[in-house]
């Protein structure tokens, strides 16, 4: 099983100062050239505040984040699953997770980064500022990443791919046949409403529970059985698969 996650705009600072970014040590090392090209382009647009504001869509409070892109080679690193923060990643509480949970994430979770392409949950990365819709001059992320990312993700085999990425990041590495979930809320009358911002919280809780149970899930039937065993409501509809957010609140041990 492979779980695909989007990155987060917000990132934790700090990390291990003795471990610098090593592109060849990241998952999918065959993407090193593509990664280096994006880093070079990001460094170029980040060198001046005026260009960084437009290219990276930075406001007055976030403009200093451009400096992260100038220090990628020397900045401290930490595992990607800890680097990202926000409504999807906070439910993971990755820094406090036990070795079994972290091991499952490292084996099964891939994050689709705009800067690095697909990376493993345990890959050591620095803080950076780049989004799927950032403008990097002649280098267009929407053309640069899809073919290379799809090819790299294909090396993981034919097992179940659970795609929890947002639309913009899904476009950077399309995976044919992946299982995408619609996160819904169900009211007292049984009516379902698709969630937008808060769907990330449910996805984070789902990945947290998958990690804690550390179960092998090889196909859709196994995922449905796992969900049922843990009181998670995952149902097939005429439009695909629905994940009921309330069934993951609070997170179940």
UniProtKB/TrEMBL annotation:
<dbReference type="Pfam" id="PF03883">
    <property type="entry name" value="H2O2_YaaD"/>
</dbReference>
<protein>
    <submittedName>
        <fullName>Peroxide stress protein YaaA</fullName>
    </submittedName>
</protein>
<dbReference type="InterPro" id="IPR005583">
    <property type="entry name" value="YaaA"/>
</dbReference>
